[in-house]
Automatic annotation (TrEMBL):
Superkingdom as given in the UniProt entry: Bacteria
Modification 4-aspartylphosphate, positions: 51
Record has Phosphoprotein as a keyword: yes
Matching SUPFAM superfamilies: C-terminal effector domain of the bipartite response regulators, CheY-like
Name recorded for this polypeptide: DNA-binding response regulator
DNA-binding region: 124-224
CC terms in the record's Gene Ontology section: cytosol; protein-DNA complex
Organism encoding this protein: Flavobacterium pallidum
Pfam families in the record: Response_reg, Trans_reg_C
Length: 225
């Protein structure tokens, strides 16, 4: 899971990153308006945490840019603004949730996880695909009721593929999802092939169908049959 934290207060941004990391969440940070626009224009995220009061711009303008670019990321506003007008404006511009500072990190985490479940997996904690069950909270995968010995990266990869079922995902997009925005600075994305190969092997050994397709020259996709 990859998120973007748009927050100019370093202590808050670092606090969120450190709290989310053990939960398998890769966090990128944009510390100002200009950097935020650059990142949302260049990368995709599962969710964006958006501060409204940035040193060089207004967070509401970022919401307008997201809407103009037809971006589908979930957005949670994190702001010290707690007026009814600011909440209404945020929701009217496309925000999915609004959390007032100061907030508890545990609450922010569960709100964000709930938002991603609603957007990608119909709100369920268990992602079921035929004989495969992925428990999002416990980070486990079962095939025909038997748990797989699987890594966090492989679970993240599987959820990314299933969440984008029937869509071709480029190696670059998968690398960004697993490794963050720095993925485009890597010499190559060969590690994606290794993750795909290992995941396919583990699923096949457990008796699962082969749902991961290689689309030569383009990337990979998850499809049924």
């Amino acid at each position: 899971m990859k998120i973007l934290i748009i927050e100019d207060e370093t202590e808050i941004a670092d606090g969120i990153r450190n709290y989310f990391k053990p939960n398998g969440i890769h966090s990128e940070v944009a510390a100002n308006y200009k950097e935020a626009l650059l990142k949302i224009g260049s990368y995709d995220y599962d969710c964006i945490l958006l501060d409204l009061m940035l040193p060089d711009g207004d967070g509401f303008h970022i919401l307008r840019e997201l809407k103009k670019e037809n971006k589908t990321e979930g957005v949670i506003i994190i702001s010290a603004k707690e007026t009814l007008d600011s909440r209404l404006e945020g929701f009217n511009l496309g925000a999915d949730d609004y959390v007032t500072k100061p907030f508890h990190l545990a609450e922010l985490l569960v709100r964000m996880q709930a938002l991603i479940r609603r957007k990608n997996f119909n709100g369920s904690n268990n992602v079921v695909f035929n004989e495969i069950v992925v428990d999002i909270l416990s980070k486990t995968v079962s095939v025909n009721g038997n748990k797989l010995d699987i890594t966090k990266k492989e679970i993240d990869l599987m959820l990314f593929l299933i969440g984008n079922k029937n869509k071709v995902l480029s190696k670059g997009a998968i690398a960004e999802h697993l490794s963050g925005d720095m993925a485009d600075m890597l010499d190559n994305h060969d590690f994606i092939y290794a993750h795909i190969k290992n995941l396919k092997k583990k699923l096949a050994k457990a008796g699962s169908g082969d749902y991961i397709r290689t689309v030569y020259g383009l990337g990979y996709k998850w499809e049924d049959g």
